[in-house]
Write a sequence for this structure.
């Protein structure tokens, strides 16, 4: 039973994956900037 993946060879899927990866990257950067940086600053005081 062969799996035909030719239906998924479309630029839309690449765009969707890029959007998801960008969203996760921005979410990670915001988490670091809003939570870890202030925690590190206050921990050193």
């Amino acid at each position: 039973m062969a799996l035909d993946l030719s239906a998924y060879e479309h630029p839309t899927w690449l765009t969707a994956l890029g959007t998801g990866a960008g969203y996760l990257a921005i979410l990670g950067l915001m988490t670091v900037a809003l939570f870890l940086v202030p925690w590190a600053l206050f921990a050193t005081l």
